[in-house]
Amino acid sequence: MMVFQNFEQLFPWYTVRRNITFALDIASKFSNSKTRSKTADYYLELVGLKGFEDLYPHQLSGGMQQRVAIARALSVRPEILLMDEPFGSLDAITRASLQKELIRIWEETNVTIIFVTHNIEEAIILGDKILVLQANPGKIKQIVHNPLKRPRLPDTKEFNAIWENIHSLLTPAGSGKTEEEPRVRGSFQQKPFPVGAYFFEVGAAKEGYHRENS
């Protein structure tokens, strides 16, 4: 299953609950509508949207719409959840909040998450294994293992060291400088993030996938 960056990934003519039960219908999960509705409500509560089941997407904020998309993806119980820059269009406060929510949901479901992002800090906060990509041709340049314990605080020396390492991998050799402003965190001022660089972040799964509400 996949969660996209675009807020318009939900069906606007369906309620929040129906957006999820529709996915369950297509995936042939559960034999009756009552069980599908109960499953939808379970995952909506998991993402913090209990009480919003009967609203329509246009009545929700961007962050809430992304939560619905995450709930819908999880409801079919995928072994791997692919998230393509799902927080890229959100404001900084909402983005930070959903990062924390995603970690909580991952800990509860144990699903493997492959997360695509342009943001180095986001990758370090969320990922246990970070795949740095290079362009033309697009391929994996290096795999960076993240040993930091959660919660991961950007203002620590250990966090800063990983940021610098990834940044150096993304900076073109011999370029001297890049186009972005320096990253400033507490007492750390870091090199800029090169325009157009891509990398994947992989949330490592725990053993097994807990089959909730089956």
Notes on the protein architecture:
This protein has helices at 16-26, 33-46, 62-75, 92-109, 120-126, 157-170, and strands spanning 2-3, 80-84, 112-117, 129-134, 139-145, 183-185, 188-190, 199-203. Helix 2 (33-46) crosses helix 3. It is built from six helices and eight strands, in the order βαααβαβαββαβββ. Helix content is 36%, strand content 17%. Residues 174-182 and 186-214 have low confidence and may be disordered. The chain is an alpha/beta fold. It has a six-stranded mixed sheet with strand order 1-2-3-8-4-5, with helices on one face. It has a two-stranded antiparallel sheet with strand order 6-7.
What is the highest CATH level, the class of the largest domain?
Answer: Alpha Beta
Secondary-structure element series = EHHHEHEHEEHEEE
Q: Report the β-strand fraction as a percent range.
A: 15-25%
- What strand order characterises the main sheet? 1-2-3-8-4-5
- The chain-level mean pLDDT equals 81
Major beta-sheet overview: 6 strands, mixed
- Tell me the name of the CATH homologous superfamily of the largest domain: P-loop containing nucleotide triphosphate hydrolases
Would you give the CATH topology of the largest domain? Answer: Rossmann fold
Termini separation (Å)?
18 Å
Portion in helices = 25-40%
Q: Helix count, per DSSP?
A: 6
Unreliable residue stretches:
174-182, 186-214
| Net shape | elongated
- Find the structural class using helix and strand composition: alpha/beta
When the domains are counted, the total is: 2
What is the CA-atom radius of gyration, in angstroms?
19 Å
